[in-house]
Design goal:
- This protein is mainly α and 233 residues long.
- It has three domains: 1-46, no CATH class; 52-107, no CATH class; 110-212, no CATH class.
- Helices cover 52% and strands 8% of the residues.
- The chain is built from eight helices and four strands; from the N terminus they run ααββαααααββα.
- It has a two-stranded antiparallel ribbon.
- A hairpin with a 2-residue loop joins β1 (52-54) and β2.
- α5 crosses α7 and α5 crosses α8.
- 8% of the residues are buried.
Amino acid sequence: MKKKKLKSKLRAEQALDRQKLYQQIIDNPNTQLFYRLINRGRNNNRTTTNCLKINGEYMFLPEEQRKGFAQYYEDLSIPKEEQYDCNYLNLCKIRQSCIQEAIQECTDIPELFTESEIEKAIDCLNTKKSPDEYELTAEHLKNAKEIVTPALKSIFYNILLYRKVPTSFTSGILTPVLTKDKDSTELGNYRGITVTPVTGKTFEYSFLTKLNLESKTNLQFGFTKGLSPKWPV
């Protein structure tokens, strides 16, 4: 009887602690709190619910639930053409085709990255964040800056030279987070927080220094004030 009361008390305190964290995120949302929430989920082997409703059926096995989440977020990431303004979508496709043709006709060798640019990019990385899927964090690059910078310089230059993005830059660790006061068995009540590769972030910071924003044409959407490359919904 005493053990049961103790367990009940512990569960109540854990629930109160979770609610405090959720309230902190709502009142003052910031990256640190989101990563704290992610780490809490990783360190806890128990799920927030014993079952998950997938395609009208309740799934109780963790493996089935993981597959359900994976399929759910994969479906969300696939563009649905019927959601867009067709005229705008066609215009974007034409612009994209023009840019690709211009790139193919360009014979200039891209400018090399300098080690100082990459070191500055590493300095821009935020510390005390969750590790990526390769167990790397900003601290790894910052503490081994002199060793990794030459290797990153070679990798980044080849990305520009061959115009191919490494597959390792295109993935990440996605953690489902239940929206407050929502039914935990419904897939649609979860939003995803993704931890992307730290080397990919370093490339992005390094590449920003290569952009000449004053020489951009009207065919380019990214990094332009007042414009967005996102599709309209």
